Amino acid sequence: MSTPLHTRRRTAAVEVPARLHDAAQTRALDREAIAAGISGFELMRRAGAAAFALIRQRWPKARRIRVFCGGGNNGGDGYVVAALASRAGLMVEVLAFKSPETLAGEAAEAVAMAREAGVAIVDGEAGLDQPFDADLLVDALLGTGAKGAPRGAYLRAVEAINQDPAPVLAIDLPSGVDADTGMAEQAVSATLTLSFIARKFGLYTGLAADYVGERFFDDLGLDPRLLASGEALGRLLEPAMLAGYLPPRLPSSHKGHTGHLLVVGGRPGYGGSTIMVSEAAARVGAGLISLATDACHLAAALARRPELMVRGVRSGLEIGDLLEAADAVAIGPGLGQGAWGQGLFDKVLERPGPRVIDADALHLLESRYAGLRRDDWVLTPHPGEAAMMLGCKASQVQADRLAAARELWRRRGGVIVLKGNGTLVVAGENETDVALCPYGNPGMASGGMGDVLGGMIAGLLVQGLAPFDAACVGVLVHALAADEAARVGGERGLLAGDLASFARRRVNP
């Protein structure tokens, strides 16, 4: 084995990423802020001011604004926005879907502020039938406490917003999107979503991407120490983190210092997957890469990447020396679940040390090693594979992606990478053991993307990164590379093989 990660001492600490909260944790932060001496109405006033400032910034020509208000604090934020817009000379109409007279506390104060500013407040259902020709719509219908699909008048309001051609600003979250899971049956399709105090976990995963539009965040000027206190679900992966995990290499570095990866897989007809794994690992900096595959793929692998050391193998008995030389293993893509794949997988599991297990290897793990739990592997299922491992439907995995990933970790240990919109990296129950990637694009909906991700994670493992760190950096680099590739050539037609060269730029921050 080599001595990985021959690098300069880190010159900067790893960036502390933004925290992600569920609805209950967000309410706890609200209470902490109030206990610290900021009134509930002052928080509402700040939220409304932040929203109106964003309106003036993004839609400076908007003159007619229609605000959809429900009850509670979310509706109160909407009334404050309406009051500020009216004071600025804009034509404003509030459609009230809960009678203003029934509101209490801070929301009632916001209604009084809107009335004092001359805002027209009309019954919501009646107002839906009255044309307004808005330049902008503001969604302040349902807050973080709402669960399930909107019903009754609220559902009709959501449908009316989505049918209107005007752009939409969602206050805190689009009505109908679950703040905790990102699930949505029917929800407002926002142009922008502005969240306050805490970043809601559900806005970054699940189906939320179809509804949130651009995401903005405002901490309302609260003490950073307060925002750092209390519980959170996890943390966001951010580009600024990369420099801390990928310091410059020493001038004396050589390939023996930068890790040796063994890639295993590629039955006849499926050799492309392991070639992409290998190439991705090379592009993120792995020093040496051996590929054990079916002999029919030798020529293709060497033609594509002559830097690889490729061996045609007939069984697991032929990879003992390769395993001995490797710092980590990536197995699964194109492996198959027949005798050939089983033999190779069994041999890989005999070896201690880090490994990335993906695709067919996940099926073999579930069918042949039920109950096996290890700390040295990274499992990278997509929702369908996660459902297979959990004995449920993919729709159930998607309904609460974090719960599914945590349950996989409880059963299997190591690091779980649950792929999909808002890819999750989970290695435990604590906030610092959960990371979510907010990057990536629909162009990644093409074959081989998961293979490339596995290669990047494995390529970082052999350079000495801990499994959780390698998974986080690999997921982040993979998504950022895809976004850059899409900017250059568009989303449609984006291929998995396009990502490797863009990833190289990201691992040299």
TrEMBL record:
<feature type="binding site">
    <location>
        <begin position="143"/>
        <end position="149"/>
    </location>
    <ligand>
        <name>(6S)-NADPHX</name>
    </ligand>
</feature>
<dbReference type="InterPro" id="IPR000631">
    <property type="entry name" value="CARKD"/>
</dbReference>
<dbReference type="GO" id="GO:0052856">
    <property type="term" value="F:NAD(P)HX epimerase activity"/>
</dbReference>
<comment type="similarity">
    <text>In the C-terminal section; belongs to the NnrD/CARKD family.</text>
</comment>
<keyword id="KW-0413">Isomerase</keyword>
<keyword id="KW-0547">Nucleotide-binding</keyword>
<feature type="domain" description="YjeF C-terminal">
    <location>
        <begin position="238"/>
        <end position="509"/>
    </location>
</feature>
<feature type="binding site">
    <location>
        <begin position="419"/>
        <end position="423"/>
    </location>
    <ligand>
        <name>AMP</name>
    </ligand>
</feature>
<comment type="function">
    <text>Catalyzes the dehydration of the S-form of NAD(P)HX at the expense of ADP, which is converted to AMP. Together with NAD(P)HX epimerase, which catalyzes the epimerization of the S- and R-forms, the enzyme allows the repair of both epimers of NAD(P)HX, a damaged form of NAD(P)H that is a result of enzymatic or heat-dependent hydration.</text>
</comment>
<feature type="binding site">
    <location>
        <position position="450"/>
    </location>
    <ligand>
        <name>AMP</name>
    </ligand>
</feature>
<dbReference type="InterPro" id="IPR030677">
    <property type="entry name" value="Nnr"/>
</dbReference>
<keyword id="KW-0456">Lyase</keyword>
<feature type="binding site">
    <location>
        <position position="139"/>
    </location>
    <ligand>
        <name>K(+)</name>
    </ligand>
</feature>
<keyword id="KW-0511">Multifunctional enzyme</keyword>
<comment type="function">
    <text>Bifunctional enzyme that catalyzes the epimerization of the S- and R-forms of NAD(P)HX and the dehydration of the S-form of NAD(P)HX at the expense of ADP, which is converted to AMP. This allows the repair of both epimers of NAD(P)HX, a damaged form of NAD(P)H that is a result of enzymatic or heat-dependent hydration.</text>
</comment>
<dbReference type="InterPro" id="IPR029056">
    <property type="entry name" value="Ribokinase-like"/>
</dbReference>
<keyword id="KW-0479">Metal-binding</keyword>
<feature type="binding site">
    <location>
        <position position="175"/>
    </location>
    <ligand>
        <name>K(+)</name>
    </ligand>
</feature>
<feature type="binding site">
    <location>
        <position position="74"/>
    </location>
    <ligand>
        <name>K(+)</name>
    </ligand>
</feature>
<keyword id="KW-0630">Potassium</keyword>
<feature type="binding site">
    <location>
        <position position="334"/>
    </location>
    <ligand>
        <name>(6S)-NADPHX</name>
    </ligand>
</feature>
<dbReference type="GO" id="GO:0005524">
    <property type="term" value="F:ATP binding"/>
</dbReference>
<keyword id="KW-0520">NAD</keyword>
<protein>
    <recommendedName>
        <fullName>Bifunctional NAD(P)H-hydrate repair enzyme</fullName>
        <ecNumber>4.2.1.136</ecNumber>
        <ecNumber>5.1.99.6</ecNumber>
    </recommendedName>
</protein>
<dbReference type="InterPro" id="IPR004443">
    <property type="entry name" value="YjeF_N_dom"/>
</dbReference>
<dbReference type="Pfam" id="PF03853">
    <property type="entry name" value="YjeF_N"/>
</dbReference>
<feature type="binding site">
    <location>
        <position position="154"/>
    </location>
    <ligand>
        <name>(6S)-NADPHX</name>
    </ligand>
</feature>
<feature type="binding site">
    <location>
        <position position="451"/>
    </location>
    <ligand>
        <name>(6S)-NADPHX</name>
    </ligand>
</feature>
<feature type="domain" description="YjeF N-terminal">
    <location>
        <begin position="26"/>
        <end position="228"/>
    </location>
</feature>
<dbReference type="Pfam" id="PF01256">
    <property type="entry name" value="Carb_kinase"/>
</dbReference>
<dbReference type="GO" id="GO:0046496">
    <property type="term" value="P:nicotinamide nucleotide metabolic process"/>
</dbReference>
<comment type="subunit">
    <text>Homotetramer.</text>
</comment>
<dbReference type="GO" id="GO:0110051">
    <property type="term" value="P:metabolite repair"/>
</dbReference>
<dbReference type="GO" id="GO:0046872">
    <property type="term" value="F:metal ion binding"/>
</dbReference>
<keyword id="KW-0521">NADP</keyword>
<dbReference type="InterPro" id="IPR036652">
    <property type="entry name" value="YjeF_N_dom_sf"/>
</dbReference>
<feature type="binding site">
    <location>
        <begin position="73"/>
        <end position="77"/>
    </location>
    <ligand>
        <name>(6S)-NADPHX</name>
    </ligand>
</feature>
<feature type="binding site">
    <location>
        <position position="172"/>
    </location>
    <ligand>
        <name>(6S)-NADPHX</name>
    </ligand>
</feature>
<feature type="binding site">
    <location>
        <position position="382"/>
    </location>
    <ligand>
        <name>(6S)-NADPHX</name>
    </ligand>
</feature>
<keyword id="KW-0067">ATP-binding</keyword>
<dbReference type="GO" id="GO:0052855">
    <property type="term" value="F:ADP-dependent NAD(P)H-hydrate dehydratase activity"/>
</dbReference>
<comment type="similarity">
    <text>Belongs to the NnrD/CARKD family.</text>
</comment>
